[in-house]
Amino acid sequence: MMAFLDPISYYLADKIYYLVCTAMFITMVGLVVIKPSRRLLGRIWRHWNGRVGLCFIAAHILISVFGPWLIPHDPYTQFDLGEIARYYPPGLEFPLGTDDRNRDFLARVVSGGRAAIAVTCLTAILAISWGAFAGIFLTLMPRWVDGVVMRIVDALISVPWLAFLLLAMTLFAGARGFSFVPIVGFFYSLAVLRVVRAHATTIVALDYVTAARARGHRISWIAFHEVLPNCRDVILVELAMRWTWLLLAFAVASFFGLMVEIPAPDWSLMIASSRTLFLSYPYLFWPPVIMLSTLVIGINFTADGLAKAIGLDRRAADMV
Amino acid sequence: MLDIRELSVGYTENISGRKVEILSRVNLSIAGGETLGLVGESGSGKSTLGYAIAGHLSGLEIQNGSIDTKENPRIALVQQNAGQALTPTMSIGRQLNEVLKYAQVKNRTEKAFELMEGVRLPDPKSLMKRLPHQLSGGQQQRVLIALALARNPEILVLDEPTTALDASTKETLLELLAALQKSQGFAMLIVSHDLGIIRTACAETAVMYAGAFVELGNTEKIIKGGHHPYTRALVEALPHIEERLLPNAIEGTPPKPGARPEGCAFAPRCLYAEDKCRHAVPPLAPAQDTKVACFFPLVDLRKTSTAVPEPGEGKERLLAVNNISVQFKQHGGQIFKALDDVSISLNTGETLGIIGESGSGKSTLLRCLAGLQNYSAGEMILEGAEDFDRPVEKRKRATQRRLQMVFQNPSTALNPNHTIERILEIPYALYEPKSSRSERSNAIRRELDLVRLTDQHLIKRPRELSGGELQRVALARGLIARPDLLLLDEITSALDVSVQAAVLDLLVKIQRSVGCAMILVSHDIAVMRSISHKLVVLKNGRIVEAGLTEQILSHPKEAYTQSLIKSAKAITA
Ligand SMILES: Nc1ncnc2c1ncn2[C@@H]1O[C@H](COP(=O)(O)OP(=O)(O)OP(=O)(O)O)[C@@H](O)[C@H]1O
Ligand code: SF4
Ligand SMILES: [Mg+2]
């Protein structure tokens, strides 16, 4: 079986996951405490999709940070429950019942996003930083460089990412686990590159960039100090948007058994294995579905709200 | 056609829920075929009134009164800042096409050409294929007007339609608008701080201050002898074309919405204010031949402008440009000469004015000097710098430092994400990399002082400052390098006349204290007359006439210069 996330990688993913969750928790608290970002949060909150998105995300962060402490069981332990061989129904001891090996399903659901969140977060960050970096630099390069690169990008972008993944798997037979990150990250960075470049083009045409050139600054200085800060909004929205797409991509790959190796908990794997049982044991099917979709919807809606908040603000600023 | 009653427009503050008025109780009516001019400093609410009429009130609400028009009128709005109003990544032709498609016009290509020719854009075929930044400022503005006319409007609102235009284009554009108005019968509202174009285009004029009309009446009467102190101050802030006089700035700034004083809003800046003015609001009431909102309307006329000191004549040669040419390759391979065999020379401490109509290559010449534009022939010499003929990134730091540029539109020339302090620190840190923290902050304060700004501006960001303040920051950013030569590209054309007067005054004082030479590009002959020492007249990339400003303006030799002066006189007050 092709299993990308072997135990070692899964262990790594676990650590990264905790880092990500803690970082997000701190960010969440920070966002509420620091004034300018509270204003931004407020603006996102004004749109209904932003409100829904923020709630979902907050719930997920709280569950992932505090969940493991509150749940007595470990997701890997197989319980010996006597005559009932498996699929122990929900009760006091196991609020969501047990799965086919009599593992605590609640514990598995709570930690089932680890691999997905850790891997896709890294991938999104890689895709955004590389895509934004290249997109901004391209606009400052001579015209012909831009033309050549964009043509290559357009050609690459029409290759589906799954084909990329399979190709890389056969090329680097030894590559395991986190190979999702550079491969899919590179692919997604192309889309980011196009969006950021389009925005940066409008910035580079402005006089303050010309002024910086006339003063004699180097291109790299201009990219970081004059252009990048003014692309920040676009990059932020891109980051959130791409992350949702990546989560879906990861889910699809994992559903086909390309990502996480059994027995590690993963929502997509759980969905895959219980999809034939969902009439008889619905409690094994719906929880991972709900978790996965609320996370995806949460990030996506927040990105929407963010885009609207920023877009609206911009129009309002032009007005007065 | 358009009838506005007791209109108040504003917004509600987020937290306190306080209602803030931007416009307060404005009354006006325009019939089809008529034109009303609207003058006032920036921030007085002129643009807001224009937007309200066009129905573009995002974020603002109508708090009182009404706007009556006939049902579903076609209203077109030409926005300020042509450069920002056009989509930067879409060719001119496509943008026109989109609008025409929206207006359901059949022969779109033909109509587009017709419109481009209508606003006198040269060579429409090649212009259509270009992106907005490949047009000169004046050309962009005309494209915007063409876009507005594409919808066959019944009411046309023009917000500062001519700021980036030279006198002759202004004149033709105003004639064109008048002709179109005659044949199509639309009502027109022209918003401008330029009393010159208002005088040419509008029979009636309203003067606006702090969201309210302070004077309304016949344009000639208002300009020749307005009765409101503010009207009078605006007229005196205009540069003079006939004499070498420095215009008068109006002290202070207009109050912000929400912070308007009780009583007469102009009282803090008014030379004639008395106690009564600070308590009661004067109503707009007939006084002599206009309607005036003032308790003590002025009756007598007097002039208070001061004469300009002659710029000190420099002794040593600083800059020589010999026979340079710049060519652009156009779509289809033809060569277009933006500059053709141009030579200029400049001594230290002198001001050289470059004047010419839009697209004549004025900005291109400055870009060459700044090393941002390659030239195909000729040479440029800056005393004491061997690498001056190279592009800017190949010049030595010391050479880069000696030449600084200030741009036309301060709102796009300053990075909106930086604080004013950072904006000023960047060039200083670039040219003095070893400077200590306290040296930097001293230098920043020194420059701020020079351009009459204070410490409190340091932590602000560009969007929190007014146009005049922004342009001072931009000037300070150039000056902090202590350049030998300052390149000023239309630096006053985006400013109010009152602020322009202050900036011109500032330039004269800066030159006296710092002693740098300046090259000033402008299409405004009156501005040239008030501060430039030498003058170069450009047309289609070639020099038509060059010499001392006074001599050229009082005895122009070439027919082209004469016509420029004539049309400038025709549209200035
Ligand atoms: N990148 C470019 N590609 C092609 N043509 C250009 C480009 N930049 C400028 N031009 C053309 O060169 C000519 C001179 O432009 P320039 O900006 O110097 O005019 P200007 O005298 O400053 O006009 P304005 O008063 O309207 O600002 C114009 O016809 C313009 O369309
Ligand atoms: S009312 Fe008083 S303060 Fe206002 S403009 Fe007239 S004189 Fe000046
Ligand atoms: Mg120009």
| Backbone shape of chain A | elongated
Number of structural domains of chain A: 1
In this entry the ligands are: adenosine-5'-triphosphate, iron/sulfur cluster, magnesium ion
Return the structural class of chain B: alpha/beta
- Kindly state the number of beta strands of chain B: 22
Helix content of chain A: over 70%
The CATH C-level class name of chain A: Mainly Alpha
**CATH fold-level name of chain A:** MetI-like fold
Bin the helical content of chain B.
25-40%
- The CATH class of the largest domain in chain B, by name, is Alpha Beta
Largest sheet of chain B: 8 strands, mixed
Main beta sheet strand tally, sense and closure of chain A? none
Separation of the first and last Cα atoms of chain B: 29 Å
Task: Give an overview of the whole structure.
The complex is a heterodimer of chains A (320) and B (573). With 320 residues, chain A is mainly alpha-helical. Chain A has one domain (2-318): Orthogonal Bundle (MetI-like fold). Chain A contains twelve helices and no strands. In chain A, helix 1 crosses helix 2. With 573 residues, chain B is of the alpha/beta class. Chain B folds into two domains: 2-74 and 181-292, Rossmann fold; 317-570, 3-Layer(aba) Sandwich (Rossmann fold). Chain B is 34% helix and 24% strand. Chain B has 20 helices and 22 strands. In chain B, a hairpin with a 6-residue loop joins strand 1 and strand 2. In chain B, helix 14 (420-431) packs parallel to helix 16 (467-479) and helix 15 packs across helix 16 (467-479). The longest helix of chain B is centred in the N-terminal third of the chain and has 18 residues, at 167-184. Chain B is globular, with a radius of gyration of 24 Å. The chains are: A mainly alpha (320), B alpha/beta (573). The A-B interface holds A 198, 201-202, 205-208, 210-218, 225-226, 229-230, 232, 315-317, 319-320 and B 22, 48, 51, 56-60, 88-89, 132-133, 370-372, 392-393, 395, 397, 400-401, 404-405, 407-409, 412-418, 426-427, 430, 463, 477, 481. The structure holds adenosine-5'-triphosphate, iron/sulfur cluster and magnesium ion.
